[in-house]
Amino acid sequence: MVDDPRRHPPHTRRLRPVADGELALQYRTVHGYRRAFRMAGQGPALVLVHGIGDSSATWAELIPDLARTHTVIAPDLLGHGESDKPRADYSVAAYANGVRDLLTTLGIESATLVGHSLGGGVAMQFAYQFPERTERLILVSAGGVGREVNPVLRLVSLPGAHLMLSSLRLPGMRLQVGLAIHLMKLLDTDLGQDAPDLLNLVDALPDETSRNAFIRTLRAVVDWRGQVVTMLDRCYLTEGMPTMLLWGDRDSVVPVRHAYGAHEAMPGSRLEIFEGAGHFPFHSDPARFVSLVEEFTATTAPADWSREHWRELLREGRPGTALGRPETARTRAVERDLREASERSAT
What we know:
39% of the residues lie in helices and 15% in strands. The protein is of the alpha/beta class and 347 residues long. β5 (111-116), α3 and β6 (134-140) form a beta-alpha-beta unit. It is globular, with a radius of gyration of 19 Å.
């Protein structure tokens, strides 16, 4: 069921203005690498995890509103933004570890995780590795649900990607790409919805070090066949954890059908579709996004994790139609995706 946020108005809470200085990048050194992050506000912790090639800047316009009722932490993942870009492990599991270690240095024991695209996979992996530190999950156009992904990302995962990305910065190429994007928008294509944001990601790769980190991260989650990690096989472990899925119905990067598949696989999850939005629904309709996040965190209790409950879920395993669940087109789609994902793992 897709909920209407107008039926659930946010609770009235004291609002605290956010100073401009709070939105500036801060830095911590963890394991010898400099980690950049933005931190603002007071209240329950809310961690915003960006997608591949992006940075905490993608959340900048939302942070002041969210920080009125939360302590907001928005990291630049290793290899992204102003964080260091070493020759290192850029897997989803490594990113989850990095988020945990940064939160530990900041004295934050538990938080609600908001993850976009790759960041959604990182948030889900964080919840899997550290359930005792995860209060809620908010997954935005998240990766790791099905194999499908935009063909451009599959292409960039191939050998020669460095040359391709470098060529986009040659004189005249920016103009040609801009004209192509304008045409796609005129034709009202789904890719036209996302192309400006995706082009901004290319602009955020000014040098070889940045491009190397981007390609290493991409190849950890995408190959020529599509996404190479999945969270579907362990989604049942979110039982008892408040989870909300936010998706644009015109997402050209991760198709909206993945939203329905994840919703089906995650017991008790809530699904919100942004009509007319692409891969960045929080850019398309920031007011609705902020309202949904505030309402969801205000009206749900943090997950009450226990070792005994975790053990019970693991022993019972993933529920299937054989246990009495009604078989629907969506459950069949989820089962198909799980069979396709049999060689993949987000561990």
